[in-house]
Amino acid sequence: MSAAVGAPAYRGSLRERLRAAAGLKGHGPQPTQMVDAHHDFLVGGKWEETAYGPALYMEKVYDDLDIHGDYALSELLDVDRSALAELGCAADPSELLFVDLETTGLNGGTGTLAFLVGAGRFDGRRFVLRQYFLAKPHFEPALLAGFAAFSEGTTAVVSYNGSSFDLPLLQSRYTMSRLDYWLAELGHVDLLHHARRFYSRSLDSCRLKELEASVLGVVRGHDIPGWAVPEVYFRFIREGVVGMMPAVVRHNALDVLSLATLLRRLAGLVSGEPLSLASEAVEVARLAHAAGDVERSLSLHRRALMMTATPGMRDFALARHLKVLKRSGRWQEVRDLCLDEVRCGLATPAVYIEGSKACEHHTGDFKLALRLTERALILARGRRYHEELAESLEKRRARLLRKLARRAGKS
Amino acid sequence: MPLADLLETLRGDPELQGEFTTWHFQPPRSARFDEFPGAVDERLAAALQRRGIGRLYSHQSRCVEEVLAGRDVCVVTPTASGKTLCYNLPVLNTILAQPEARALYIFPTKALAQDQLDELHGLIGEVGADVKTFTYDGDTPADARRSVRAAGHVVITNPDMLHTGILPHHTKWVKLFENLRYVVIDELHQYRGVFGSHVANVIRRLRRVCAFYGADPIFICCSATIANPQELAAGLTGKEMVLVDDNGAPSGGKVIALFNPAVVNKELGIRRSALGAAREIAGRLIKSGAQTIVFAPSRIAVELLLTYLRGELKQVPGAAQRVEGYRGGYLPSERRSVEKRLRDGDLRAVVATNALELGIDIGSLEASVLAGYPGTLASTRQQFGRAGRKSDLSFAVLVAGSRALDQYIVKHPEYLLEEPPEAGLIDPDNLAVLASHVKCAAFELPFQVDEGYGSVGKELLGLLAEEGILNLSGGRYYWMAEAYPAEQVSLRTAQIDNFVIIETGPKARVIGEIDRPAAPVLVHDEAIYIHSGQQYHVDRLDWEEKKAYVTKVNVDYYTDANLAVDLKVLESFAELTEPAALHAHGEVAVTYLATIFKKIKLETHENVGWGKIHLPQEDLHTTSYWLGFAPETYSGFDQEALQEGLWGLAHLLCNVAPIFLMCDPRDLHGVAQVKSPFTDRPTLFLYEAIPGGVGFSSHIYTIREQLLRTALATIRECPCSFGCPGCVGPDFEGRVVSKAVARKLLERVA
């Protein structure tokens, strides 16, 4: 250690020390000069008085013939109610509330705001899209009250990933404003859950954008990426810069409209409209089976097996088909289906095993069971990572040989 | 063999190399009881009755009364005095009467939370009431969290989880916060220094959130014995506390002994190691059948002692399996099993780190052996307290190491036996800490423009708003950033991060860690780093990644780096000029620059080479105490002698100050200036290694007289000739006058 040599010490101002402590290392404060935002970007922007102050919203009304993607919005009103019920939607379409939020972050927590609340509902055959915009953070209670008033009379929410994101966030916002969280009373259809079942095996991702492009016929054009959204709002709030805000509003509007189109599409598929993907057929089959219609489920599976699909998708469809047959105790058909697959050269070890089980335990054809098992063994041995499978097949083979010997002894 | 006989043998055992400097008998104390306070629910009283608790100890009864009367209470009682009942009883009592009432328990570790959960479950089961109790921490499965949030009457968590997991999501905890009646903070004494300063801010945030939901919970704090429990509790919670410290629990007689291992090299002041002596004493105790706990200073020491003890017990069939280790790094299941076997008496001995010092229930043992002074009186008393029976005799012994602290304690038993222990110090308004938590608080709830937070909260809010991180709208500051501030703030550090030392080779492994300020001096390129007696050559120091890569070597030299430390006084907060000396404390700016290192031959201390160190300069803005010497105090010393004396004194004071501070010697650094530009006289600075400081220096200023007297006693009683680790530091490079000059200086100012 050495002695200090002294120059007069400079002690930063309190301000500088606080800045350092708070980790503010930038070039000082940002310009705070507010551009006077006329909210020109808010097409149809209106101020509404609520019990909690003024709320700002934009509204657009789509009439009977306005389309979004491959469907007119109003078509949703005409879908089969039982198809909606199969999708877990008990409410009448005229009572649905379509909701999507733009927020200041994706992490959640009480410091995350929903600055744009997009909501859609039917008014007769017209579809009303209303977007509440948080022009200043302290207008939040008014925004929440306005949104609640607009939604009066609806009985179920339709969202995309709403159960993990939008609804918990809204719940948090209502709590922060000490207002009643009325959405808890409503039903909820989270279309992301359906989208995953319908499309995860055939599309690259289940993002709404991907679905729009692949199956809904929606053309987005230039769209702002989601990650860029919070910063647009921060600039608007800090400096009054409108910047990309119109793009954010449009992005949100398209998201809400696509909810209606996606629900229309899925309901159509359930009620028998043409299928375009094997994964759709398998999911509709699952819903039919759940609704007790075994024949329809089986016929949809047979369709799926004939449609173009990746090997993984096809294996999945076959497994589901076999499962339904087995549940219904139709062992002869299990056997026949497996043999068909074998004849076509499509069979995986799993198919041989299913066939072998059906023969051994149900149709009593031990010889055929043994042949299928032996073929499966050859396949299993030829592949890596199949040691356990080979082992269990050996056991099965030994058991079948014993059974055959016993039967030979008896006769 | 009865413990009393065993102790007689032990005391006179000529084979133990060293001496018992103290052999103190604490007489047994009988219990003082009170009836159950009238307000206690009959079901609860009946359940306790069935568990053998027909009356309450006086301190329990007083605590329950105060809490049920709506007062915040700080309970201070020794280990195993039934302190959990002090809070469980009023909490359960309230929930039985009002099922919507909620309580939040905060423990410093997950293990303690688990322990408490088991205890509460037991009591609730006995009552037969539907009181739901959960732990909520990093181990709580995602699917269980929802029910904890909605239904938990008592939620047991830790400060870190409260900080990152609960407060930033308080809207998911509406039920809890709206009905929060009690907050229990156990192991209060753990919340000191930087950690305590952070936790005080987490509590500020907690109270802010409670106020939002209209709740104003009562705080029940429990602390081990420290000098200022009431003050610490008030500092942490921001509330005035009623102190309950009149212990009514009984205890058997106890022998407290201090053992100083024999000196092996008088000149260098080197003694036999504390570990070796502790092993011999513990071995004798265990062999004679006394259930014993041995506290070791580090994880490695635990393993070493465990191996030795098992080796010694080999002759006794089955005995070696009945000794276990217990330290951080063991699996929770292993720890639970050790705890249970100790309670059942199946395990005869355990070797532990201070992990077992905390309130984990292992029953009461017969003997406690401490290998080295644990660093604070409060810890020492807790570790001693692990031995203690309600009626029978017990034994606790501290085996001193060769550090200044240890040697002071072993020669001054009155400290351990009579003095009030150290103060737990925090500074919730430390700027760096405060600034972090203002952000977290603003994220949780918008600040009103006229709402304060800590000392300079308003100013900080203004700055954050200027920067655009907050937005002032309608008289409130709103969080306006994507960042999630709580995740960027760790409660357990204040910007000081450790360097890891990695032994390279086919099986690379981490051999240790050192704190950042020490890194430039100890693990610069080409340094010889000594770890557990083994030499390592530093092949490369990766400054950015905070890693030092080393290989084992066996060379005949060590390295000594020259650290240029520049300290400037920024502001003096308080000053006192006496005839002989000037005392002050205030704010300082310190810069470090490691410049060169010397290679010094072992034994002869010849200089056999040197090299340059290329590392960036480090800055530290902190608080310091300083001591300036009047001319008559150093008359007769030339410049060089004075320099040496001041250095020695800095070493001594840094090592003695923790006696009063409840901090680690590493938390304080010393600098000596022969002619300080600020005071214009020879000056010695003791500054805090933590940015901004947490109040150690102002406390040193307050207790300066005691500190100097203690330092003087230490130097007078040290048997070494020219300096050793126990006083002014080893006399490397022949600093032969260091000790003499330091002693003279002290005699003139103390």
Task: Tell me about this structure.
The complex is a heterodimer of chains A (411) and B (750). With 411 residues, chain A is an alpha+beta fold. Chain A has helices spanning 14-21, 81-86, 140-150, 162-176, 191-199, 208-216, 229-239, 245-270, 278-290, 294-306, 311-327, 331-344, 349-363, 366-381, 387-410; strands spanning 46-50, 53-62, 67-68, 71-72, 96-103, 114-123, 126-133, 156-159, 187-190. In chain A, strands 1-2-7-6-5-8-9 form a 7-stranded mixed sheet, with helices on both faces. In chain A, a hairpin with a 2-residue loop joins strand 1 and strand 2. In chain A, helix 9 runs antiparallel to helix 10, helix 10 runs antiparallel to helix 11 and helix 13 packs antiparallel against helix 14. The longest helix of chain A is centred in the middle third of the chain and has 26 residues, at 245-270. The N and C termini of chain A lie far apart (102 Å). Mean pLDDT of chain A is 89; it is low at 1-10 and 31-37. By secondary structure, chain B is α/β, with parallel strands linked by helices. Helices cover 35% and strands 26% of the residues of chain B. Chain B has 24 helices and 32 strands. In chain B, strands 1-11-18-17-14-16-15 form a 7-stranded mixed sheet, with helices on both faces. In chain B, helix 9 (193-212) packs parallel to helix 17, helix 11 crosses helix 12 (299-312) and helix 17 packs across helix 18 (457-467). The longest helix of chain B is centred in the N-terminal third of the chain and has 20 residues, at 193-212. In chain B, 53% of the residues are buried. The model of chain B has no long low-confidence stretch (mean pLDDT 87). At the A-B interface, helix 1, helix 4 and helix 7 of A face helix 17, helix 18, strand 21, strand 27 and helix 20 of B.
